[in-house]
Amino acid sequence: MAQTAMANKTDIKKEEPKRSGAGAAIFIIILVLAIIGAGLCYWFNVFGIKNRILVMMGKEPVQVELTEDEKRIENEKYYAELQAEIDEQKAELEQKQAEIDGKLAEISEREQKYLVDKAEFDALYEAFERRQMDVKDVAKIYEQMEASVAADILVTYSDKNEVARIISNLTDSKAAEVLTEMDAKYASDLLRVIN
Q1: Rounded distance, CA 9 to CA 15, Å?
Q2: pLDDT in the model for residue 94
Q3: Could you write out the three-class secondary structure of the chain?
Q4: How confident is residue 62, by pLDDT bands cut at 50, 70 and 90?
Q5: 28, 115, 124, 162 from 118: Cα distances, Å
Q6: Structure pTM?
């Protein structure tokens, strides 16, 4: 029995599977394929791996040469962006031009109103100047009259402002004589208008 037990132990040992080199070979093949795959990814810059590795190493990434179609597409995108910016700036300029045109129209309208007002003012000023000349001419006539006659005529005027202007254009002594000949209340009203 002891021999059989020993024989069984040796059989058990013999029955244990031997380690073969197949598992190691598969591991080495997978490792080699992974290294080759990583090398190819690096070489062809798949997913930008080469650029990332170069940046990690502190070197400049390699610029990939674009094909003619890729260059054309990049140029089209660039020019489309430029055209969009130009269109946006053009729209802003058109808006500002519209604002400027509105302001110019407003200025033109104000200028026309100013010219109309100025013409009206000039006409009124000219009439005023003529009236002043007329008042001075009339005052010269009253200057020649007797104070009592001048007072009687001036009292008949319906516009006290007109009478006040005539009296203010008389010499001080003549104005005093004419006012003395008038009714006291009427003369005081004229003096209020003159002052």
Answers
A1: 10
A2: 94
A3: CHHHHHHHHHHHHHHCCCCCCHHHHHHHHHHHHHHHHHHHHHHCCHHHHHHHHHHHCCCCCCCCCCCHHHHHHHHHHHHHHHHHHHHHHHHHHHHHHHHHHHHHHHHHHHHHHHHHHHHHHHHHHHHHHHHHHHHHHHHHHHHHCCHHHHHHHHHCCCCHHHHHHHHHCCCHHHHHHHHHHCCHHHHHHHHHHHC
A4: low
A5: 105, 5, 10, 26
A6: 0.36
In whole angstroms, give the CA distance from residue 33 to residue 27: 10
User: Could you give the CA distance from residue 20 to residue 15 in angstroms, rounded to a whole number?
Assistant: 14
Hey, what are 123's tokens? Answer: 């006409």
Q: Encode pLDDT of 64-115 as tens digits.
A: 666 888 888 888 999 999 999 999 999 999 999 999 999 999 999 999 999 9
Spatial distance between the Cα atoms of 106 and 85, rounded to a whole number of angstroms: 32
CA distance 153 to 178: 10
